[in-house]
Amino acid sequence: MNSVSLSFAERTQPVTSTGSLLGESVAMREVFRLIDRVGPTEASVLLTGESGSGKELAAKSIHQCSARRDGPFLAINCGAIPAGLIEAELFGDETASPGGAVSVHAGLFARAQGGTLLLDEVTEMPLEMQTRLLRVLETRRFYPVGTNMEIISDVRVIAATNRCPLQAVQNGQLREDLLYRLAVFPVALPPLRSRGNDVELLAEHFLAELNALGRTQKRLSAVARMTLRQHSWPGNVRELKNCVERAYILGDTVLELAPLIQGSTRDAATDRERLNIRVGSRIHDMERSLIEATLDYFKGNKRRAADALGCSLKTLYNKLNGYSQSQECANS
Ligand SMILES: Nc1ncnc2c1ncn2[C@@H]1O[C@H](COP(=O)(O)OP(=O)(O)OP(=O)(O)O)[C@@H](O)[C@H]1O
Ligand SMILES: [Mg+2]
Question: How far is it, in rounded angstroms, from Cα 169 to Cα 146?
């Protein structure tokens, strides 16, 4: 198959509203880089990430980056189909019409031929079914239930889960051999709270979409922008998108977000993600504590820390140099 030259990583501006993954943070740029690399190949991909972090959209992006992009993209939520029906749903089965004629109902593998199939919540698939799936992935052949009709599978499989896959193996929920077959190329979607300025970028994007649709010019208040940064978005991009839409419906011109968040969602920040600052602290000391705690959180990775703090890497270096110089002066 031909490879395509559609590059996410090179994009610096948020792009289109047609389902593209948006983001400018270091963490998302890494995701785009991985999608660019794996997209044009035939490798199976395992997408992990918290609920609402964009796994399905990432799967669509991989499909769009591949030579299969003109073929179908289909998704199945493995947790939502009763165990007894999932095999027929995936591989099809024989159905008899009232007149007695027998025909084969096409399952997802048949309908996704030439395209991509997303197995969402793959850890929820019954173990027996996982064995059959593994066989199909290895032999690239399947049989509709109750038939001996062999069909060659021309489907790229992408799997997704919001659980830790290794933990799911340990719990006996996911077959280890299937995990390694699916996770030829793992891609982890970062939680929204570690994407720095992407929160604002996405909020502006969702609002612009609503404004275009409603021919309005609503905008976020200054306080709403602060709320964007302060909330930890446990429901990730989905929560943000819904929150912006609720604010859009409720607000006339200048939109507030805080009243929509308080009490309606939990604050998922752990102690490692918090900083206690005494009222009356000097701004300089507060800034230094924040920078040091952020660096600590990102295990010394300055690029990611700068990204989360919303400043350039150069600014971060200048600040850190300033701190070590003042430390040297204090010691001498
Ligand atoms: N980076 C992004 N840019 C733009 N929209 C995004 C982005 N990430 C997610 N979205 C939007 O957020 C919503 C949730 O994304 P998606 O369904 O892909 O998440 P998910 O990880 O599959 O969630 P779940 O685990 O609950 O199935 C969708 O409306 C999607 O279009
Ligand atoms: Mg999903």
Answer: 30
